[in-house]
């Protein structure tokens, strides 16, 4: 049997690692000290790459693996993979859509509630013994608010459905209007922000959507508006976001992702109107297992010459 070498690019899931170890000859990129020597000795046997939102498969890595046939990413996002180069080289690409939709949408709602109702700040207030000195201040309700969503794909739609349960009015922006959608469409992000109390970023990261939330959008959202980002860090111009929050031009933010993870602007640490979490949108036991199983099933299908379950390329 032809060797089935798999290169994992980054530590991601112990369960996934175990499943891969049980089926393939696995190499761990992060443990390799001399990569030139490693690739000289092993590149001919590595037929698959498993990446994630930290390290995927760029042109340099692809060129280092002449036997590469498939890239299977432990994520729904594809921004760390050079898709065009994979197409050119005839390399298949798969991701893990659907299985993480609920978790990411749940977190988006959680960030909205935590930010608008100041849940984290109130938790600190109680633990510091301040309740004995007086009641916590009034916060802002979520129910009935106008929610704008950038990107009405699987995750955006799931967020919209959850917002509807809070009697919110939902609007959206996407590359084109979706005729089947019942939600109000705005042809620009600025118009969407101007007509929203809460703006949620839920689109894919591409060159077109990089810094899709800029100073103009933030100003349109305004001093009472909330920005929620469960997409990718580079969707938001982070410096402009920091300036707006510090200057009071934006009401608050709930952020799961950042431009230069795991580095987060320290200016945000002292702001009570900001809730920060560590890119944990899909980080539940149940979803991690489902994502890992999907990665493995795609690899098994490929090596068995069967149709891929979630092909991208």
Strand content: 15-25%
Rg over CA atoms, rounded to whole Å, is: 22 Å
Proportion in helices? 25-40%
> What is the SS-derived class?
alpha/beta
Series of secondary-structure elements, N-terminal to C-terminal: EHEHEHEHEHHEHEEHEHEHEEH
What assembly state would you assign to the polypeptide chains in this entry? single chain
Low-pLDDT parts are none
Q: How many strands, what sense, and barrel or not for the largest sheet?
A: 7 strands, parallel
Number of helices: 11
Spatial strand sequence of the major β-sheet: 8-7-6-9-10-11-12
Q: How many strand elements?
A: 12
Distance between the termini: 26 Å
Shape: elongated
Which whole number gives the mean pLDDT?
97
Which helices and strands appear, and what pairs or packs with what?
Layout: E1 5-8, H1 14-23, E2 25-28, H2 35-42, E3 46-51, H3 59-63, E4 70-73, H4 83-89, E5 92-94, H5 101-116, H6 119-127, E6 146-150, H7 154-164, E7 169-173, E8 184-185, H8 189-194, E9 198-201, H9 215-221, E10 226-229, H10 238-247, E11 252-255, E12 274-276, H11 285-303
Parallel strand pairs: 1-2, 1-3, 3-4, 4-5, 6-7, 6-9, 7-8, 9-10, 10-11, 11-12
């Amino acid at each position: 049997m032809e060797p089935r070498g798999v290169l994992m690019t980054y530590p991601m899931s112990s369960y996934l690692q175990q499943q891969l170890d049980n089926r393939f000859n696995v190499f761990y990129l992060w443990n390799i000290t001399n990569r030139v020597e490693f690739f000289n000795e092993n590149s001919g046997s590595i037929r698959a790459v498993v990446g994630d939102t930290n390290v995927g498969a760029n042109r340099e890595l692809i060129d280092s693996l002449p036997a590469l046939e498939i890239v299977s990413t432990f994520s729904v996002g594809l921004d760390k993979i050079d898709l065009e180069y994979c197409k050119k080289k005839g390399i298949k690409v798969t991701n893990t859509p659907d299985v993480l939709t609920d978790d990411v949408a749940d977190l988006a709602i959680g960030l909205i509630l935590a930010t608008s109702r100041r849940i984290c700040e109130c938790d600190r207030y109680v633990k510091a013994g301040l309740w004995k000195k007086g009641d916590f201040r009034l916060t802002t309700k979520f129910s009935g608010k106008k929610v704008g969503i950038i990107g009405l794909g699987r995750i955006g739609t799931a967020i919209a459905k959850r917002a509807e349960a809070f009697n919110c009015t939902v609007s959206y922006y996407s590359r084109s209007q979706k005729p089947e959608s019942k939600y109000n469409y705005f042809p620009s992000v600025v118009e969407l922000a101007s007509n929203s109390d809460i703006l949620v970023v839920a689109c894919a990261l591409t060159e077109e959507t990089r810094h899709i939330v800029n100073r103009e959008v933030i100003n349109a959202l305004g001093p009472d508006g909330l920005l929620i980002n469960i997409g990718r860090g580079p969707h938001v111009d982070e410096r402009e976001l920091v300036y707006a929050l510090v200057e009071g031009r934006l009401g608050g933010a709930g952020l799961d992702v950042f431009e230069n993870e795991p580095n987060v602007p320290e200016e945000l640490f002292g702001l009570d109107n900001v809730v920060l979490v560590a890119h944990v949108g899909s980080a539940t036991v149940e979803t991690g297992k489902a994502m890992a199983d999907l990665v493995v099933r795609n690899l098994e299908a490929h090596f068995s010459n069967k149709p891929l379950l979630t092909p991208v390329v």
